[in-house]
Input
Amino acid sequence: MKYAVISDVHGNGPALKAVLEDAGKEGISQFIFAGDYCISGPWPDQCITAIKEIDHKHVIRGNEEKYLENLIDKDQSAWTDGQMQVSYWCYRNVSRENLDYLLSLPHRDDFECNGIKIHMAHSSMDFMGTHPFYTWNSVTVAERSRKADIAPEQILSDMADERRKDAEFQEAIDKLEKGVYIFGHSHIQCSYTDKTKEIYMINPGSCGLPLDGIKNSAPYTVLEIRDDGQVEIEEKRVPFDKDKYIAEVKQSGQYREANVWSKVIIREQESSLEHMYFFLAFVGQYAKEIGDERRPYALDTWEKAYEIWSKEYAK
Ligand SMILES: [Fe+2]
Output
């Protein structure tokens, strides 16, 4: 049995379409989706519809789904802050039927294929706690790529080596039962195989918002479980025209209504590197300095912080 493992679509309709088409060409008809379907890209409703229409699938919730759940039946006249604009826009642009579908999804799924147990959760923390996949994340990749002129493939390869040599990581592996562990959340495509211990870990990366430094492609991972229980993992990158995508984002309602968020996301799409984490840290500092204690951040604070950050701090 072959599965296409996909995660963190984040409302990027064209990337999801490209990945589904590629899986179709590979003859794959089973799908695994590991959460975060909306927020950041302007096609949230289309992405949910596309996933709903797939016949054979395992689908779980991610952390972004919670942001939409928190907005249900709330007084929209109070939605005047800057920080949450993208969630408000997304909430208003997802049909109630699709929202109900998203919120009906489980946080975990565990199933079996050809005698192999498969475990799904949005974050590796569900399986291994705060260490180790969680700490080799998109911030690590961005910081390393800024410090030295080093190819993203080398950074990812170094991180994989560090994991293999890390005693705490091996300890966490030893506590797991045999099987395949699937998660997303970090937006970094990676996998780990220990054939002796029969442990396999897969993060297919972010289909819609990859932050592993590898440009112009949408990642997903093929998981094959043969009839004899042998497990094979193949990481794939599907060519994806980022420039065209960014031009379309700039024409969207999301770009008009959640302008700052959209601009930070465009920076992430252009570089395939983390920017939002650094911007949020900057806004926190800026709000403190001007004595603005409102949370979510007020529109003025949010926009002014972006203006300063984008000119003086964004790299
Ligand atoms: Fe995500």
